[in-house]
Design brief:
By secondary structure, the chain is α+β, with helices and mostly antiparallel strands. The protein is built from 5 helices and 5 strands, in the order αααββαβαββ. β3, α5 and β4 form a beta-alpha-beta unit. The longest helix is centred in the last third of the chain and has 14 residues. The N and C termini lie far apart (about 35 Å).
């Protein structure tokens, strides 16, 4: 038995995780690919039933220069990558997470310009706090 077969049996991956690992274009994106829960505990509905916790997966992150809200040249291609992925898998939604609203709006505008339908994009704190540091805006996906 090959080592990869053994690993695949020991560590089951969701379809999204496999797709994101394949789609990661740089070592940083590959290392940053992670699933994170939106809430620590499952929410309850009106009758007290537990509802599933949504999971968002980091897909791409944008780095911004200090005092600037425009997308850097080195990150321009990311919106097209996200749009291509979402066109192939139309059940996915994008969540934009950042601590600067102008930067979050810049990323949303880039996604819409690249072809992501505006109604498939959400804004909010979908990832861990570490995503909102160092002048970064994260784009996360969920199915």
């Amino acid at each position: 038995m090959r080592g990869n077969d053994t690993l695949a049996r020991l560590v089951p991956l969701s379809a999204l995780s496999v797709l994101l690992l394949v789609a990661a274009s740089t070592a940083n994106d590959l290392l940053a690919t992670t699933s994170v829960p939106v809430a620590a505990a499952a929410p309850k509905n009106a009758v007290g039933q537990t509802q599933p916790v949504e999971r968002w997966t980091l897909f791409r992150s944008y780095a911004f220069l200090p005092q600037r809200n425009d997308i850097r040249y080195s990150d321009v291609h990311k919106a097209a990558e996200i749009a291509t992925f979402m066109q192939r898998y139309p059940s996915f939604r994008a969540g934009i997470d950042g601590d600067n609203q102008d930067r979050v709006d810049s990323v949303q505008e880039a996604l819409v310009d690249a072809g992501v339908p505006p109604d498939m994009i959400d804004q909010g704190p979908y990832g861990p706090d570490e995503l909102r540091r160092d002048s970064r805006v994260a784009v996360l996906l969920r199915d």
